[in-house]
Amino acid sequence: MSNLSFSDIVTSFTIWDFLSELSKPYTQMDIYKAGIIDSRGKFLKTPQDYKTEKERRSGNTFHRFVVILKRALLTSSDPLIRYTTTNPMAALNALAEEVDALGGNGKVFLETVMPLFEDGAIAAAPVANSVASGGIYGARGNPDETIVNPSAAKKHKKRVKAGAPHVGRRLLESFLMEAKGRVVETTGHMTHLGDFLYYGKPELAIKHLNAVHTRFRGKGTPNHKMSLKADGGMSIVVKKHKDGTPAVAYKSGAADFTTEDEIRAAGKEHFTRELVPALKLAKSLNLKPGTAVQGDLLFSSGHRGTVQPNTITYHAPQGAEIGFAPHSQYSTDGLNLRKTSSHPDHSGLQAAGAFIPNLAITPKTKLSLTAKRHKVITSSIAAAQTALAQKGTTEFLRKLPQDKKFHRMLQEYSNHAARTSGDRTVEGLRKFIPVHMAKASQKSLSDKTKKAMVDSFHSTIADNAHHFHNAFTAHAHINRAKHALLDQFGEHGDQFELKTASGEHEGFVSSMGRPGATETQAKFVREGPTGFPARNTENAIKRFGKAPEA
Predict the structure, then answer these.
(1) Domains of the chain by range and CATH?
(2) Which letter does DSSP use for residue 497 in this model?
(3) What's the N-to-C CA distance of the chain in angstroms?
């Protein structure tokens, strides 16, 4: 991005292209359909990876710039900037300032483009203004109404090279530098215990399992914590900035909101529905300045005694208007979020009309592992270790993530197994290849590329079938031990503040290491036909008409 001058781009696109492309969801962009970015705007390929004309056309400098700009603008810590990027009229005024900075006529720009927004034509109309001469003209294509001409752009380039101040360029570069240097350690997708076998550190699966086994026997392991896993809705962050200003953010922490107007300006219905009540909660909490807490929303409006934020139905106290299940605490400075604990301090998490259950599993939590289950767990761990000790298997698993395409397919297969049979086999992995290739992320690939990927997948499996067999055998033993622990845990689920209607919780989370440094987290959730992933899939189909992505 450092070699990408704003003025280089301005002279090579039309107003139509830029405004319509910037306002599109990522999934409607050609660059997404070509498989170059994912649904959140994350780049999957570099220009060096392009092999087809479609990829080169859809992933050219302009389209990559739009994606980078869209991501960067929405992560600014300045609420005014975020408002500018989500409100059409504010965005137009910002663009007009850029036009003025380029030596053009910002007033003509606004007079030309604003009526198009008012008429609703901006997204549907074809590109009418030719830029063959390098200029950006008004909607009527009249050279007398040039907004930015080649001469002005050339002068601008000279000013930039000479180090002259340029507000627009400085603003954009500050966005990108701000995003680049940001520290955000919020919890996103959590790894199933057994899946650590495939993430380059297979020993972590055994370490987490041993630590939890020790805890169930009434003892402890240094730097190890456990928490109840809540099956909540939207994951959010409530915070209090160092100056005392309350704020709320989505779990990514990419941007936070300090006013209801900022939330509504984002133009997302679910943000307004969930984050407006969450902001009211943040304002009523007694958090210390510079502190943030992440958790899952359980409900954000009135209820009749029970709520179902996702798959599990929970009891909710009468009179509570919002439910928030906190699981992680952070220190915050601007948009930086540095994790400090997997057991949030509840002394500042109390507010009238709010239900905020403590999820921590502490030494006082009764678990009382039976002798029979202890025997099952001990033998299962030993069998898993034996499988991993086979010659070359652990070394192979440590290198597995280096083949990113195969690793992605393997991850999807393991997730698929978790919510279906619960079993993983070499033959099952082979049969999953066409399922993976049929996914949307592969559809835009050429037949030649698809064939090369499939051949490569089959070759990797054939060459390392014995290692995969050992890994899948270890995974089965790990799951056997995990399910024994979950059976025991299920007998003590009534001692938590968060109570389910059925009496069965989703599971629990094991955290090992120092938060923000060496910490890893594994979720202990039942797999297979009667497991939570299968129930979650069934619930998603029932409520939303489709299963979640693997």
Answers:
(1) 6-180 (no CATH), 191-228+367-544 (no CATH), 232-358 (3.30.470)
(2) S
(3) 32
- The dihedral through the CA atoms of 60, 63, 67, 73 has a sign that is positive
Q: Give the C-alpha separation, 46 to 294, whole Å.
A: 33
Q: Please state, in angstroms and rounded to a whole number, the distance separating the CA atoms of residues 371 and 76.
A: 55
CB 495 within 8 A of CB 222: no
Largest CA distance in the chain: 88
* Contact call for residues 369 and 376 (beta carbons, < 8 A): no
Cα–Cα distances in angstroms (integers) from residue 392 to residues 194, 196, 389, 406, 456, in the given order: 19, 17, 8, 19, 21
Asked whether the beta carbons of 421 and 528 are under 8 A apart, the reply is yes
- Interatomic CA distance for residues 31 and 67, integer angstroms: 9
Distance of alpha carbon 165 from alpha carbon 9, whole angstroms: 18
- Strand-pair category, 191-192 with 520-525: parallel
Structure-block tokens of residue 194: 């057994």
**The one-letter amino acid at 187:** T
CB 525 within 8 A of CB 531: yes
- Which of 348, 326, 321, 351 lies closest to 244 in space, CA to CA? 348
From CA 240, how far away is CA 247, in angstroms rounded?
Answer: 6
Residue 433's closest CA among 464, 455, 417?
A: 455
Place of tokens 């991993």: 388
Phi, then psi, of 211 in degrees rounded to 5 = -65, -40
Of residues 159 and 73, more confidently modeled: 73
Distance of CA 502 to the CA centre of its chain: 30
- Give the C-alpha separation, 538 to 535, whole Å: 5
**H or E element at residue 271:** helix 269-284
Give 59-96 pLDDT, tens digit per residue. Answer: 887 788 788 777 766 565 555 455 444 444 555 565 66
**Residue with tokens 């698929």, as numbered in its chain:** 416
Q: What is the pLDDT of residues 200-253, one digit of tens each?
A: 999 999 999 999 999 999 999 999 999 999 999 999 999 999 999 999 998 877
Half-sphere exposure of 215 (CA within 13 A, CB side): 27
**Is the distance from CB of 331 to CB of 291 less than 8 angstroms?**
yes
Residue 200 contacts residue 520 (beta carbons within 8 Å): no
Written as six digits, the tokens of 157 are: 């380039």
Tokens of 158: 């000279």
Task: Of 477, 492, 481, give the one whose Cα is nearest residue 375.
Answer: 481
User: What's the pTM?
Assistant: 0.70
151: which residues sit within 8 A by CB, 6+ positions away?
none
